[in-house]
Amino acid sequence: MVKLLIQDAVFVWYEKYYNVKPLLSKSKPQVTLDTSLSTGKYPWARETGDEIMNDYFKRFNVKSSEFEFLLYWPYEKGLLPNFLRPLSQKVPEISPKPLTVRMLVESAKAGRWTLDF
Q: From the CA atom positions of the chain, what is the Rg in Å?
């Protein structure tokens, strides 16, 4: 019963604060356990991802020490292409891993981040 309440609380929190209607869309995205915040049709920018995760860790009292932000929002190249950068400033191409609502729910149940791999 408590686990279901946590799941509902995560959905309500995300729906209220972060599930917004994308520009040029008629409606807000439908959020499911498999909705990804970092990949897919409506990924969040890294700044917003940072805001969401900081709020999540505080609101649901989840220990964040095991959370690896860069797995989900890796560094981006920016405007300057890699071939124009000095070797020391090249940015590797790394695809973000999906960070799903299910992961938020499961970590909230555990009280710590449990899903980096």
A: 16
Closest CA to 11 of 111, 113, 106, 105: 105
Provide the H-helix boundaries in 26-116: 46-59, 69-72, 101-110
| C-alpha span between 35 and 75 (Å, rounded) | 22
Give the C-alpha separation, 14 to 52, whole Å.
Answer: 9
Cα 84 from Cα 90, distance rounded (Å)? 9
pTM of the model: 0.83
CB 61 within 8 A of CB 85: no
| pLDDT bracket for residue 88 (50, 70, 90) | low
pLDDT tens digits for range 35-86 = 999 999 889 999 999 999 999 999 999 999 999 999 999 877 665 565 566 7
Match 């799903």 to its residue by tokens. Answer: 100
In this prediction, residue 21 carries a pLDDT of: 86
* Sign of the Cα pseudo-torsion (80, 83, 89, 91, in order): positive
DSSP helix/strand/coil, 110: helix
